[in-house]
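Sample entry as discussed:
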Amino acid sequence: MRHKSGEKQLKRYLGKTIPKNIEQLKIEFLLEFYHNQWNPHIQMIYQKYQKESKTIPMSIKIQNFENFGIYFTYNTQKIEGSKLTQEDTKDLLIHGITPNKKSKIDTIETLKHYDLFVTLVNSELKKITLDTILNWHKEIFGQTKIGESGNIRTYNVGILGNDKIEFSTVPQIKPKLKKLLNLLDKYDGKITPVELACIVHYEFVNIHPFGDGNGRITRLLVNYILLKYNYPLMLIQNKDRKAYFKSLERSQLEDNSIHFLKWFMKYYIKNNKKYL
């Protein structure tokens, strides 16, 4: 096997005959190749972020997290179709000014998302359980998705215009969520927390436990994980939503997380280049 990206190349001899588990070996081979590319950058980002954090007073850290929360809330809402502009969002969250002639639903969900994010930043980071996820969903959508907020969906869903991508059926949702949350609970450090956050994102979206709001919950999960392990937070900007969804869709179509993983890790490293 051989894989090349730019000037870097990795080769592996598999023997004279093709192994029966060749597909699994290919996945492991690609992960090894990309780990060699990503991990040194991730480690440097972590070390320099930690060094910087030690010089910042806690009050300023909280303020920085709250400022991040404004842009995180704006972008995660915008990715899902919110009509609020960045200025609308800042006026709403900083000055309490309700946007004129804008969706009441967008306004409420923006407020609730930001409030939840700030609460998480200021709280003790506990084990994430199914109840945690359900409570987050209810916090954000309790006033806008009456009857569905905080509840696992009871019907099957898919992607409009792409019947090749299938999410978990109703009976599969809770067992798969339990397995995913167990992965979080048993995290052993063999992969970086950034890669862990990416895998959780990918698997959570594939499970799609809610009728609506899955994207916002999964991006909160990503930042909860990064916050817990003291890594810089992840801001996926609305302007990059096309590449974001395309990488996710490609992985879903091929049932192989490597495409989304490549996009996610490169995006994270690029967004934290000031630490490199």
